[in-house]
Write a structure and sequence with these properties.
This protein has 161 residues and is an alpha/beta fold. The chain has four helices and five strands. A five-stranded parallel β-sheet has the order 4-3-2-1-5, sandwiched between helices. The radius of gyration is 19 Å and the shape is globular.
């Protein structure tokens, strides 16, 4: 096999062109909304965290953001995570998802978690949700999507198994 040789990049050295964008940097017009629906297995990959970071980008672009957690994604909003105590970070980044949800709520995003998934699938109570996350009726998943459609809002939907 051929070996590619060259000098090893040094810390701080730019490897990619971050100035050239292909697409326009779109900002929300007053009143525009975005709904982000997450049905993802948290902590098994980066999809959940990446989409929550995208939510923050949407907020920074001026969108009124609503986050809908359903199915396994409700686990992202557990207010009882931590080790060895609730809220303690066992290793750097351990509570990154919870911290990102707190950031979103503090910046004005509305964050909802499905009560059916919380109770029927995972056995945790609405009182166990972290601050800033609100429980909602399982039929609200469809109605939230229909509301977004009716409002001509941007929608981002993520499903992972």
């Amino acid at each position: 096999m051929a070996k590619i040789q060259g000098p090893k990049p040094e810390a701080g050295q730019e490897l990619y062109d971050l100035e050239h964008k292909v697409f326009e940097d779109i900002q929300a017009e007053p009143g525009q909304k975005a709904y982000v629906f997450l049905h993802t297995v948290p902590y098994e990959g980066s999809v959940g965290l990446v989409n929550l970071l995208t939510c923050e980008r949407l907020l920074n672009k001026g969108f009124d953001v609503t986050v809908v957690l359903y199915g396994p994604a409700v686990l992202m909003a557990s207010g009882t995570r931590g080790f060895p105590t609730v809220g303690a970070e066992a290793f750097p980044g351990h509570l990154a998802i919870n911290k990102q949800l707190s950031t979103l709520a503090a910046k004005g995003a509305k964050v909802y978690a499905c009560r059916f998934a919380m109770g029927a699938l995972y056995g945790f109570r609405e009182d166990d949700l972290q601050e800033g996350v609100h429980g909602f009726h399982y039929r609200d998943v469809l109605d939230a999507a229909l509301t977004a459609w009716k409002e001509k809002a941007f929608q981002l939907n993520t499903w992972t198994l």
